[in-house]
Write a structure and sequence with these properties.
Strand order of the largest sheet: 2-1-3-4-5
Helix content: 40-55%
GO molecular function, one term: ATP binding
Radius of gyration: 25 Å
Shape: globular
CATH superfamily of the largest domain: P-loop containing nucleotide triphosphate hydrolases
Number of strands: 12
CATH architecture of the largest domain: 3-Layer(aba) Sandwich
Low-confidence stretches: 135-144, 382-388, 427-433, 444-451
Keywords: ATP-binding, Nucleotide-binding, Phosphoprotein
Number of helices: 18
Distance between the termini: 53 Å
Number of domains: 3
Protein name: Response regulator
Organism: Rubellicoccus peritrichatus
Mean pLDDT: 81
CATH class of the largest domain: Alpha Beta
Structural class: alpha/beta
Order of helices and strands: EHEHEHEHEHHHEHEHEHEHHEHEHHEHHH
Amino acid sequence: MAQKILVLDDEENYAEMLESLLEQHFFLVDSATKPEEALKALEQEGYELVISDYKMPVMDGADFLLKAREINPDLPFIIVSGLMNTPELVKVANMGVTLVLEKPIDIENFINQVKNFVTPLAEEEYADVKSSDGDSSEGNAPTVRKFIKTYPDDLEFVSDSSATMQFFVQDLWDAVQEQSHIFISIPPGSEIELILREIKRWKQFPGKKFHVVCPGPSVSSTELLRQFTLVAKDDSYANLIAVTGFSSAPLSAQEMLVDAIREAPDDLCFTYFIESTLLDQAAPAINEELLELIQESLCRMPPLKVRPSDLATYVKRILPRIARVEGHSAIAEVEPDAARALLAYDWPGNFAELISVLRSAAIVEESNALTSESVQRFLKGSNADLTDLESHLAQYQADLLKKATDDSGESTMQILEALGVDYEPTGESTEGADFPLLFPDLLTTPVAVKA
């Protein structure tokens, strides 16, 4: 019988990432997101190795290890987790854990460690086993997808360092080659602009700008069609329309959008960015015609928290640029403690939050490398507690004003007056993050993204 691995992680996306990574190396894998499901699988199936997260609700990795040992005392057990403190490490060591690996994993080391306990199949044997197994085990066996890369190696904008992102980029590449309407499920704050730039390269569209549409009740189908026609005729635009904001768009506005798209010039490519939180609902508020197309050909983008290698790539690539813009060109490195803080964070705001944190930290950083103190100040749960776009903008505005006052020696009001900002104090605080947003329209006004 072929050897199998059981993966347990309460984060479904991370469990899927590990499963996909192992399957790319021809290991047979089952995954679970709840310890009780994993224990049931251990009782019913024979596994040669368990790979488990540590920090999980209800039952942590140590408790799961204890119960797994009751089922199979000799089963090799690897814990893959974020930062574990010394008492936790001692606890699992005393319970006989085989190995502890820290997130983000070193992929080459991870695969080599797994090979110490499980022998991967030959590619042909793997294909035979999967084709014969199918979904035969009472519908519980996961559907396995083998990764076959056909997209170009020379990505310029999107990072595909992580296994989950490689699957997404492959799906996106296939959609771009085959369709003029591309549907993408995105977590909030994902790197939409980078995706559009990559699509523009793949499609070899001329032009320098994208046209971004947010369907709303105040925009008629006639006006939308006029915009689409202008984009098709204007050489300064790429023939690429990005459609966003579905979670806040009523069905009537979506219907007008569909009507305009039906009449749009044929050479336009439409890319729909649909919030994953909306699609996860039992009855998503999506136009029925669009929903039918979405269900047939949806590319699902993974959140940043399950893509630590992509996160590291973006930090290395973007931090020097941000530092130059903010007048702190000496920042080109990240101290180890700061890197660990960035990698251990969950990033609920994804790429947009990463950019905001890096920019804010670069403004206040006084050394030549990004420190943990600067980073922690702007992560959710710190004193800044930045949980949404408005909070990020308020803190960013406050940091800019403080930098301006420190550099010039003038008061906040004098700085605003010099900038031509018409602001009348209302008795509320005019310092720090409590200072009201000077340009609140940034929260609601769609902006065309420049390539």
